[in-house]
UniProtKB/TrEMBL annotation:
Gene3D superfamilies: 3.30.70.120. This is Divalent-cation tolerance protein CutA. The lineage of its organism: Archaea, Methanobacteriati, Methanobacteriota, Methanomada group, Methanobacteria. One of its GO terms (molecular function) is copper ion binding. SUPFAM superfamilies: GlnB-like (SSF54913). One of its GO terms (biological process) is response to metal ion. It holds the Pfam family CutA1.
Amino acid sequence: MTNHKMVLIYVTCSNEDESAFIGKSLVGERLCACCNIFSAIKSFYWWNDSLEEDTESVLILKTIDKNIEESIKRIKSLHSYDNPCIIALPVINASNDYLKWINNEIHNNLDLDNLDLNSLDLNNLDSDDLDLGCMDLISNLDKLHTTELGLKRIEKNLSLNVEDAVKWVKEKIENPQASITKKGKNWYILIEEYKITVNVNSYTIITAHKIK
């Protein structure tokens, strides 16, 4: 087995739950051997020509050089941000035993070539299966949340004057007239004059705005 160089992948997430979801996914898929999470950091950055202040979470993933591109692609597919901070950093030196452990855990992955694809019965899907994504959102409304930045976006875009914007979004999604579409990593909800965007994996309300 070839020992590859170790790298750290630094990722900022909307909150600790999203960091845990992404980290557990990549470690579970053995793209990375381990991850660490800093639950809350203070961030300052420019967004739409405005200097923003927000509380985020930091995820640090430990992997090897050959997995960088695939890991970045996977993180982007799971992340709630349109343009997340994902930075791969080289490790100059480390304990030999730890480096061996990193390599062993990542190489000890599933043999995908031996999966029995014939066991996947794709012909028996009925129309109800096509709505499972939307039902997943409706049945997990208690998981809906947003970030400080997301809250600012919603209140600014909709000129809302409500005490609980998340509750307002839940009520809109529960409306029988709501049209819910799952596309890529987000759900898109159309209701009345509003369009709401929710991340599929973290249940983060990314934004909401009026349809022009």
